[in-house]
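Researcher: Good morning. I'm working through a list of sequences from a screen, and I'd like to move beyond sequence-only analysis. For each chain I'm collecting a predicted structure so we can compare shapes side by side. This is the next one on the list. No need for commentary yet; just the structure.
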Amino acid sequence: MSTLAGNDSWKENLPCFVLKRAATEAERLGIIHYDGNKWTPSRDTSCFSGRKLKSVQERAVQQLVHSRLGIPSNFNTKVVELMSDRIKRWKAPGVSTTSDCHRALSIARDVGKNLPARFVFGFWQSVFYGWLTDTRFRHQGQVEIRSCIFSCGEPDAKDDFYHYAVCSKVWAAFYRLGLHRSSSVVQTGFRWLLLFEGDANLSIRMAFLTSVMVAVHKLRSPHSHVHSSLREKYIRDTFKEQVCSCPLLKSTFNELWARDVFAL
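Model: Good morning. C-alpha cells for this chain:
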C-alpha cells in the first residue's frame, strides 16, 4: 500500500475490497499521504502507547480502531457492548456478561502481552465461538454434523465446541500433560477451558486452549488420516509443539513438571 503510485489508480490495484476501503479511509483520516513515489504514514508513533510503529499498516489499523472505538480499555463501553453478544453465551449464574467481558479483555492484555500473537488469537477465536466445527456451520440441515473429531465414542458427541469443552479425550490430554498442577481445583467445562474461571497459570492454559483448537481444525482435513486411537496424543503433541516455540511457556511448563524430573 505504501509503495503504489500516487493517484487514485493505486487503490484499484489492491487485491480486495477490504483493503481498498481501509486505504481510502486511511487517506481521508490523514493517516497516510503521498510523498514523492510512495505513500508514507503521517506519523510513525502509536496513538495508544506512543511507541514507534513498524509499518504504515499498523498505524492505519490503530487509527481506524481509535476513530471507531476510542482508546483501548477494559471499561470501554463500545468495546464491551460489541463483545457482549458473543460472550453472553458463556454466562454463569451470579456472573454478569459485562464482568466476563472485562475479564477477557484483562487476560488478552495482561497474559497475551508476553506471548506470541497466535495464542491471543486462539483465545479470542474461542471466546467468540469461532472454532471451525460442523455445528457452527450447519445451514438448515444441509450440512451433516459429524461426530467428535477426537473419536471419544461418547453418546451424542458432536463436532461442536460445547462438546470439546467436556470431551473425555481433551481432558485426558490435559491430565496426561500434567496441567492439573496449574490449579488446585480443576473445574471441567467451557468456562474453565475459556479461562473465565481460575486464576493460576493462565498463560499455559491459554496455550492448551489454542492447541485444542488447532488440533480440531487440523484433524478436520489436513491430518484427518491420524488414527482415532492416536488423536488424544495428537492434542498433546500439538500442545508441546506450541509451547516449545515460546521460551516463557516452555519455562512455565517445565516448572510444573520439575518435581517429576521431566522437562521439554
